[in-house]
Every structure is written in structure tokens, then in C-alpha cells.
Amino acid sequence: MSEIKRGRGRPSKFDAETSLQVAMHLFWSHGYEGTSMTELTEAMSINKPSLYAAFGSKENLFHKAVEHYLAGPVAFIDAALQEKTAYEVVEKLLLDSAACLVHPDNPKGCMVLMGSLNCGKEAEAIKQEMIVRRQDYEQALKQRFILAQEQGDLSQDAAVDTLAKYVVTMHQGMSVQAVNGASRAELESLANLVLQHWPVNQQSANQTAS
Amino acid sequence: MSEIKRGRGRPSKFDAETSLQVAMHLFWSHGYEGTSMTELTEAMSINKPSLYAAFGSKENLFHKAVEHYLAGPVAFIDAALQEKTAYEVVEKLLLDSAACLVHPDNPKGCMVLMGSLNCGKEAEAIKQEMIVRRQDYEQALKQRFILAQEQGDLSQDAAVDTLAKYVVTMHQGMSVQAVNGASRAELESLANLVLQHWPVNQQSANQTAS
DNA sequence: CAAATTTTTTACCAACTGGTATAATAATAA
DNA sequence: TTATTATTATACCAGTTGGTAAAAAATTTG
User: Fold this and answer.
1) Which of A188, B13, B39, B173 has the highest Cβ tally under 10 A?
2) In a shared domain, residues B85 and B162
3) Phi-psi region of A128 (alpha: psi -120 to 50; beta: other; left: phi over 0)
């Protein structure tokens, strides 16, 4: 994978993947508006025209950085949704989140929240995009809970809307806690509190290997 | 309080209290960095030198706006802490919050969160101040729970640290939900979910000191 | 009236914002 | 070697940022 046939012109001296990683970290740390093009180019060690040639605009670079984030640091979310039972979904979701939100290699909190929770009107589009991503996340979780009801590992009485919103709310609140300085253990305590009260279906003791 | 003896010079044509209200709303909506001095002066209908004479700096204006916020829209928080039992404290806290976070007259979410969850390095001091305010809030709630244990309306086994962090986390997560577009009813459902599982002291109905 | 005082107004500042035109440079293809 | 091509580097753009100096206006005091 290192032997790439080079094109005709001057060879580019930066790797797009690596640059994206740097951009992701900056946007994750300081948000969309809080990160300037100058900071980005300096951290990437490239100059602005190169950055614009490679990514088009600041907004587009942010989009790419968010995709990089979803496919990387929080890939466990999609994995969690595929766990066997609703309980295990929530368990993996919140415990892995606890680890990720305060991981020493990462900026604190969730990028989809930190990216632009609040912003000036110039970044309104970015803010809306982040909102949609969070709504989609909640919807996916709700659908997973509906499936769990069909499969019998979640009580039919459970209000899946509220339950999904509850888990997402805790996840997002834990992001704020991470920024506030909470430790991994503290976040895990919160996760366990949610799990303690989880409305498992009483009658179906699902006997999958443990 | 309307008959103020005017000083010697030209009368100022703006009311500091009203201006602060306007500033509060702008900072609340778009955060510290997302609100420019030009937006502020235009919304207040005053020019910059007047604003600087009255409030010193953008940072100081923000401080004043936050104090205005704490004493106004979220004054119910201090009131909630004085309810009779821990259960009632949490009940008032979360239900009043649900109403406030999506009240049509207010920007969505909590100002102490929206003010500057994420920001560039120039606003780092503001961000830290908001963090401290959130930590203090959590501490106050924890102390209230300790008092509740002494008064007997909260189980001695309850982990007051985790419990306080849990309620605050839900509160902050509900702020994000408000931004995402959640309704008051949806936020109240979340609040009720927390209350359902509240660890009331089994043996004591209500008796004072131990 | 005129002096004194306080505010408003206008104009301005250097630094920074996202974004780009132009030219120099380094590779390949002929 | 000489074009051709793609990327880098330099310099620059108009607009905005937080903040201010200086003058003009409106009031009270003498």
C-alpha cells in the first residue's frame, strides 16, 4: 500500500488521511467555529491553497472530519446496536462511551456535540447537521428497541420512544460530564445506574451464552 | 425606583437592566464566541463606546449576563434545593427545567451549557468559568442529598456522589435534547423516568434529625 | 448666560476571518 | 532537453473581530 503510482506533477507532501485526523482532533477540541483555518493549516503543516485544493472549504473539511470520527473513535456505536439484547446494546453503548469520552488520546466529550452545540448564525448549517445526526442516532436506538420487543428481550410495556431518548440523553449528558472533568469510573457509575433499572422482560430469561 | 436624581451630564438613553436582558438572550442563543459586539450593540440599540463604558468588556458583559440568567430564568434551581425531601428537590428541579429549557420565550437549552461548551482558545477562561458553575451546581445537589440522608428521606445506602452526578447529567442531557427539538412533554417523560427509580428511604416516611 | 460634566456619535485601529490569484517548484512524459 | 502537469509557496483580498480616541450633543450647576 506504499507503492502508489505517482501522477505527473509535483508530489504532494502531505497524506490526506493523516491531515484529516489532525483536523478531526482540532474540530473535536474547539468546535467548528472555534477552529480557524490558520490553526488547521499550521497543525497539518500545509498551506491554505493545498488545504482548499484537497478539501474544498472549511465546511467540507468539517464534514469529512465528522465522517472520520464516526468511522473511527465511535465506531463502537454501530457495533453496539448489533448486540443480542436491548440490555446488552445499552450496556456496550454506555460503557464504551464512558471509555471514549475521557480517553487520554481524545478530546473530552463527543464530537457530534462539541462540534457546534452553540454557534453564531454563520455556522447555523453545521449546527443543524449535528442536530440531525443526534436525532438519527436516537431513532436508530428506538428502532433497535422495537426489534428487541419483537424478539422478546424488552418488555412490551416499555415506552421505546422515551427509553431511546433516555439513553441518548444520558449519553449526551455524559459528554458534558466529561468536559466537566469526570473520570471514566464516574461515567461508568452513571452507565450502571441506567442498567440497574433496565426494564428487562420478566418472563423471557433469554438463555444465550454469557 | 423610577424617580432617580439624574447626574450632571448628558442623560444616558438606555436602561442597563434592559440591555443586560438583551445581552443574556443573545449569549444564551449563540454562545459567547458566537455573539459579536456588533450584534450586541445593534440589539441593544446603543453604540459600542456606551456599551464599553457600562460593562467594561465583552467578557465582563457575559459575566453580568450569566448572573442575570441565574437570578432570573433559572432561579427555580435554588428554590428546588430547599424543597422538603430529596425526591421533591429532584422533582421540582427536573420538571421546572423541562419547562424552562423549551419555554417559547427562551432560547433552547441551558445558558450555562450553551454559553461556551466548546470554544477557541481565546474563550478558554469563559469555558472554565462555565465548567466551575456546573461543578458547583453538582456539589450543591450532593450536599442536599447528604442532608436528606441525615433527615431520613434518602436511603443511607444511596451513593450521593453518583446520584447527584446522575441528576445533573440528566439535566444537562435534557439541555441537548431541547436543542435537538424535544418537546416539554418529552422532557417531562425523562424527568419522570428518573423519579420512578428514585431510592426513597423505605423505612422512614418523614422524621427529622437522627 | 457660560462652565462643567457625562453621554452619544463618528470614525478609526490592528489583528484576524475564510478564501484565492499568481508564480515558483518538482515531478513525469515526450 | 523540453513540454506538460500538479502541487507548493507567497502574497494578497474584502469583511469582521474586539476595542478606542476624539469630537459633538445634552444635561445640571453656577
Assistant:
1) B173
2) yes
3) alpha
pLDDT at position A7? 75
Q: Which has more pLDDT, A138 or A207?
A: A138
Specify which residues A200 forms β-bridges with: A154
Confidence at residue A9, expressed as pLDDT on a 0 to 100 scale: 85
Chain B residues with beta carbon closer than 8 angstroms to that of A193: 162, 166
pLDDT of A5 strictly over 70: no
Q: List, for residues B10-64, the tens digit of each pLDDT value.
A: 999 999 999 999 999 999 999 999 999 999 999 999 999 999 999 999 999 999 9
Domain boundary among B69, B86, B112: B69
Q: In terms of Cα–Cα distance, which of B19, B68, B17 is closest to B44?
A: B19
Q: Count CB neighbours of B117 within 10 A.
A: 26
Domain span at residue B39 reads 16-69
In whole angstroms, how far apart are CA A87 and each of A91, A155, B70, B193? 6, 11, 38, 17
Q: Can you give the pLDDT at residue B3?
A: 42
Give the gap in angstroms from C-alpha B131 to the nearest C-alpha of chain A.
5
pLDDT in tens, A68-79: 999 999 999 999
Residue A132 lies in a domain: yes
**Percent of chain B whose pLDDT exceeds 90:** 86
pLDDT band with cut points at 50, 70 and 90 for residue B118:
confident
Tell me the nt nearest to A40, Cα to C1': C18
Q: For residue B115, is it within any domain?
A: yes
A51 in Cβ contact with A40 (< 8 Å):
yes
Instruction: Give B170-206 as a DSSP string.
Output: HHHHHHHHHHHT--HHHHHHHHHHHHHT--B-SS-SS
CB contact under 8 A, A190 and B166: yes
| Per-position b or e across B73-99, b if 16+ CB within 10 A of its CB | bbeebeebbebebbbebbbbbbbbbbe
